[in-house]
Amino acid sequence: MARITDELGLCLDNTLLTVYFPPIQRALVFRVLGRANKGYEKYDYGPLPLSSGDSLPKLSPEGGTATVPANGVIPGRSYTPTGLSFSLTGAYDESDMWHYPKDESDRLYHVHMYVTPSILRCDLQVPKRYTQPTFQKNRIVGGVDRDFGYRRGYLEVIHLPDLVYGYRFANDMNTNFYTKVTFVYAEYLVELVKDPELVYEALAGLKPTYWYTMPVSGVDESVIRAIREAYGIADGGYPIVKVGTPKSEALAGIREVII
């Protein structure tokens, strides 16, 4: 089988990329036409955007708050309750470098975020302030401030247009840590696939595609609206092709959501 990704974990030119939303069993299928930053995929961003004097809540069972002692330092036993954004002067949204408008839907940002020290817990809010990790159909909420629902030192993220994501972090050690964030990313030139036959082949596993599962336990209405306005696709994406579904029925479902 032909390779789909390179050594950085980014999609090669002229490959398919599928973004899947498990809670609604919907997906978007893109064709990656190229990479605007080919050869320049690494960005040493710097420390986490934490400012000296900021107050962060402490993890259980301590409770209370901790004060950020210096810029970019996460105190021991503390976490960021709301996801952080990464500022960049000159970006479309200077307060959030990964936020971009719906009329730039010919671009897609595929991000591998690495934070040091790699012991730090990480999770993702999509959209910002919407905590996603859960257990047993949302009976229990997880995340960086809980006993489950996080990764350490790394997140993979696909940024869709007109959506603000939040990156959360926690330090469950007793010591303060100076931090550093590195992004390995692709600014893809893409087109949303709207050929029902090709969408069907990708979703049915008949055509090679890089499959990215959005780390969400719920899909907020703002996400569905952003997909509709950016791509002209209703209901949050194409319906997943289930085992045993007749092809004619699957194609009808795909055509139905194309506006």
Walk me through this protein's architecture.
The chain has three helices and 18 strands. α1 packs across α3 (247-257). The protein has one domain (15-257). With 259 residues, it is mainly beta. The strands form five sheets. Strands 1, 2, 3, 8, 13, 16, 17 and 18 form an eight-stranded mixed β-sheet that branches. Helix content is 12%, strand content 33%. β1 and β2 form a beta hairpin.
Write a compact overview of the structure shown.
With 259 residues, the protein is mainly beta. It is built from three helices and 18 strands.
Largest sheet: 8 strands, mixed
The helix/strand class is mainly beta
Overall 3D form? globular
Would you identify the regions where 5 or more consecutive residues have pLDDT less than 50? Answer: none
How many runs of DSSP E, i.e. beta strands? 18
State the helix count. 3
| Rg estimate, integer Å | 19 Å
Distance between the termini: 34 Å
Report the mean per-residue pLDDT as an integer: 97
The structural domain count equals 1
The helix content is 10-25%
What amount of the residues lies in strands?
Answer: 25-35%
Task: Please write the string of helix (H) and strand (E) elements.
Answer: EEEEEEEEEEEEEEEEHEHEH
